[in-house]
């Protein structure tokens, strides 16, 4: 966990990191990092989507409606990319949720210059939804531009289900983090080996 109280990002894409803000989804006690709209604005700042002054202004809204929309988007992103990572067909309803939020986001954006002579969506103003607009854009960017063949689901047996982009050369990464689920998996393997030896 970072000093800000949020989970350190490991997804390799903003939309995947946002999906991971509900950690340990298949465990008995998942950890929620976005309880309130203030948390949402704080996470958006933590992820570099808005600056500190914008975050401070947005937090004054404390918008319950925007929080609900953001969390619905988060669950849709999780369902879509979990399916992608497992080689399955994403749920149509989840894809439509991502599409709708993307449409809302770009309707409030403007095109501005980006590195290497390209253009990107830019957001201004202090509307509460600004905290999640870039997440919706990032999700559609990953869906349409990839690399979808590098989207993976954490293989930890403990129920992490974290999403990440496998950027290793041979695409051999199996766990969300080597110092977290990776270590736990090694410990479990060693325990099984010891048990097998005893038998």
From TrEMBL:
InterPro entries: ABATE, ABATE_dom_sf, Znf_CGNR. It comes from the Bacteria. Coiled coil: none annotated. Pfam families: ABATE (PF07336), zf-CGNR (PF11706). Residues 150-194 form the Zinc finger CGNR domain. Transmembrane segments: none annotated. This is Conserved protein containing a Zn-ribbon-like motif, possibly RNA-binding. It comes from Paractinoplanes atraurantiacus. The lineage of its organism: Bacteria, Bacillati, Actinomycetota, Actinomycetes, Micromonosporales.
